[in-house]
Write a structure and sequence with these properties.
By secondary structure, the chain is mainly alpha-helical. The chain has helices at residues 2-10, 21-29, 71-87, 98-104, 119-126, 151-157, 169-188, 193-213, 222-241, 250-262, 272-278, 281-286, 292-308, 310-319, 323-339, 341-353, 359-378, 386-405, 417-434; strands at 17-20, 38-48, 52-62. The chain is 60% helix and 6% strand. A hairpin with a 3-residue loop joins β2 and β3. α13 packs across α14 (310-319). It starts with a helix and ends with a helix.
Length: 435
Amino acid sequence: MVNFTSRHESTGAPGKIHCSSDLFCHLKSSSASSSPLYNFKARGLVDMKGKGEHYTYWLESATGSNTAADPRALQALSADAKRMITSQKWKMRRYFEDEMSNQLVHRSHSRQSLVDFDTASIMSSSSSIVSGDSDGGAFGCGLDDSLAEFKEELHFVWSDLGIDQDISTEEVQSKVVDVLLTALTACVGKGGKRLQKIETQLLSFVEAIANGYRNRSKFHSFRSATDVLLKADFLWQRLAEHKSQESCDPWDQFVLLFAVLIHDMDHTGVPNSQLVAEGDYLVQQYKQKGAYQQRSSVDSAMEILEDDFGDLYDEIMFGCPRFRKSVKDLVLLDADMESEPENVISRLHDVLERPSGDGRLSRQRTEAIIGLTFILATVGHYCQAYDVFLRQTKIELDSEMEAFLAGRSTEDPRPKWHDVQALAFEEKILPLLDA
């Protein structure tokens, strides 16, 4: 938070108040009346060192409706401060009267707030999956009866799982390397200098992927991908601990983690349908194949891996010849979940319902489990502690607001946001639990 504020200061201008999109949306939505309290001027995208590009505003003045921050109120505040300094009476004073509190503290019920969700309507349909109100755990994956016994562990560990929002990008990258290296070591073994070389390339590869994200969207960012990575790793570790027969190949875990890490790398912050409307170059590149951003993410990551990190690429492809296809199939699930979530979950569930048979069917079951784990990790914040859910959903809403304010979406996402979240529970989370 302090670093981010410092970036706003260093990229600001003398005599101006530099305002983030978060603060802009907060102040625009905090009025209990229909009259705006502040005047803003859009500045546009600003490149902030170590933070990427962010859409910012100038906070120019208060409006006449803002009785606590209009020119007269500020003059009275200034005069009061001078009197206090002159008399040396250093004590806390309440400058903002009840009227200001009524305007800013009591939030509107018109569904304009970023985080003032309609708790009752959402929680009524999800009380069994939000960990704080569940009777057994954060979620039940239902892949195998033997998994039921670790529900209590999930309740305590899963609820708040994720990266600390205040750690540096370098620390995030280090965490990713630790997780991937542990999984990769299980695949290739401990080979002395050979493993050291792979570790060095893996560290540089993760840095290249982090730079590849370019932070075009807060919700589809490297940090968000890392958050999902930790969830996927946690879920797969629990599967391995319970010796599910489909989770015995260590390459399955590495494929899952790699796919999670790169799945949003080329995401622009808008759905694929918007790229079609804009005639984006990705649409021209992939033509009728669809899933433009997801296909581009896989191709970009694999190109970086093959061209710049040959030893790491060779090690992976030698140990797992199906690697590229498996990663691509997982990432494309993300696009399918965007358009037809219930069909995707139903298809994977049907595979698991088939009786175990030959090797080909066993592999299909394995891929279905990996796919469900991938999906569970990407929507995991819906199943965690409620404050985690609010924080992640706020990031998602902020990203959609940035697209709307930049003219890349025709509809303000705020008025229907509660309905969208309830629908996500209905179409994604609940079917996952039924699966």
